[in-house]
Amino acid sequence: MGEDPASRVYVRNKERACEECGIYSEKYALPEETTQEELLGLIDTLNNKTSISGILVQLPVPKHIDEKTIINAIAPNKDVDAFHPVNVGKIMVGNYDFLPCTPAGVMELIKESGIDVEGKECVVVGRSNIVGKPQAMLLLHQNGTVTICHSKTKDLAAKTKNADILVAAVGIPNFIKGGMIKEGAVVIDVGINRLENKKLCGDVEFETAEKIAGAITPVPGGVGPMTIAMLMKNTVKAAIINKSK
Ligand code: NDP
Q: Considering the domain 1-77, what is its CATH architecture?
């Protein structure tokens, strides 16, 4: 909904990924002034449309729309973002259908890199419902010892410097400096920030961090593409789940 330039890019990338994977997709680019009732009406139609397996409302929504109401309106079995409270609860108890795409992408990167989470000090900076909190839960499921940091955390650098695996999901450009990282740590940068010169950068200051880290993800090109890949995975899973119903 609306004109958010970043959202347009994200939606376009998701459409392209669907095309590449052979997943049928429909895009509804709703004008800013669309009412909440109209949006809820569209979600209801898609919830009941058997040819549609997964529904994603690109966030953020305009201010006059209540984000929670929208998330709650998506049928949990079509909630490929895994933001619905039913799916959040399922993740909490470790018995889930869908994982939220960004944290799942981070876990996939860790796994594919041959990094064992078990017993590691894992520090997640950021506690949003869509990244930080589920990220911490997924690391915990893999037997990491997890610390969650946020804007009220005292002496953040002491916490981050203790991390064997550090996940930054803050939304502040170059926030985590090399001096805040433990020698040899795995550093995963979820942040996508656009600078005044229009360039993208992460939450980690790559130039100083790469000298200290044992492994580090770039921005762009690190977690971002993994997020989209996990969305495709969730969509296929939703198709299988919904077909068997
Ligand atoms: P939010 O703004 O929802 O959350 C940011 C978190 O960072 C909050 O928990 C906040 O703490 C914490 N924070 C803010 N300032 C500080 C500080 N000074 N010290 C420690 N913690 C701080 O952001 P999101 O989680 O939605 O996104 C985070 C970043 O990840 C953004 O750059 C976003 O663009 C990017 N992103 C990337 C995706 C991808 O596909 N790669 C997908 C989703 C997001 P508090 O709770 O106390 O306010």
A: 3-Layer(aba) Sandwich (3.40)
The answer to whether the pTM exceeds 0.85 is: yes
Task: Tell me the CA–centroid distance for residue 178 and ligand 1, in Å.
Answer: 19
Domain segments of the chain: what residues? 1-77, 101-224
Of 160, 200, 204, give the one whose Cα is nearest residue 182: 160
Query: Mind listing the pLDDT tens digit for each residue in 185-200?
Result: 999 999 999 999 989 9
Per-residue model confidence as pLDDT tens digits over 42-94: 999 999 999 999 999 999 999 999 999 999 999 999 999 999 999 999 999 99
CA–centroid distance, 134 to ligand 1, in Å, is 13
